[in-house]
Amino acid sequence: MTPLPKQSLGLGVAAAATLLCATPSLADWSANLIARGLDTPGATGQIECPPNGAVATVWGTGTYTSDSSICTAALHYGWITLDVGGLVGFRQVAGLDRYEGTSQNGVTTLDYGSWNSSFQITSAEPLGTSAGQAIQISWSDDVDAIGYGDRVGESVTVTCPADRFGAGQVWGTDVYSSDSPICNAAVHRGLMIAAEGGTVTILILGEQPAFTGSTRNGVTTADYTAWPRSYIFQ
Question: Which of 58, 101, 134, 228 has the fewest beta carbons closer than 10 A?
């Protein structure tokens, strides 16, 4: 059953439109998954959130309804700031039975009941980021999630937030499969501890014939056979 549009409840687009009309000098932050045509299972993408955007309506915390403002969700969860904005990565995930609103980073999101589609923020970097600057990522992000899956031979610097150790499986030792979460692999490699997070640089490599797992620094990685892409820490 298709959920009742929130607009009929006097929220969502109507509220965002009122704010935009009242503050025409602010950048448009109203875009959501539906408007961008990415409200499909597992879809990923990026959106530019200009500085000083018009804060729009959002439902949820961490996992947001698909009709929530992507840029405002990124601000709410601490990925970007209002005065700087950023290039925000996101991923579509399954809908939830209930969404809990909270007040964080100057943004108050709303509660909502069942909704059929959601998204999560996966990365953020300053607009116009030049080579060598760090991209802020989440603990679940792998090489594909940050848009480097097909960029063999290139390096990228990423920053992992503190206190958000993820449960994602890592394959390999020193050389890791491209679908291994980068932050977890960095802990395994001994380059950071989860409680503090940190910044690391990886080099994207091509196919490896096999990956050997091991236990290091409290992280156990797994063996795997041939995989088309991989990475190492520099």
Answer: 228
**Parallel, antiparallel or unpaired: strands 103-104 and 63-65:** unpaired
**Are the C-beta atoms of residues 197 and 160 closer than 8 Å to each other?**
yes
Q: Can you give the pTM of this predicted structure?
A: 0.52
pLDDT tens sequence across 78-104: 888 888 788 888 889 999 999 999 998
- The pair of structure tokens assigned to 60 is 């949820």
> What tokens were used for 155?
């390096």
Beta bridge partners of 71: none
How many whole angstroms separate alpha carbon 109 and alpha carbon 130?
Answer: 32
Please report, in angstroms and rounded to a whole number, the separation of the first and last CA atoms in the chain: 50
> How do beta strands 103-104 and 135-137 pair?
unpaired
Residue ranges of the domains in the chain? 6-122, 135-233
Residues 100, 129 contacting (CB under 8 angstroms):
no
**pLDDT tens digits along 129-157:** 554 578 888 888 899 888 888 888 888 88
CATH classification of 135-233 is 3.90.1590.10, yes or no? no
Quick count: other Cβ atoms within 10 Å of Cβ 159?
18
Query: 186 phi and psi, to 5 degrees?
Result: -65, -35
- CATH 2.170.130.20 assigned to domain 6-122? The reply is yes
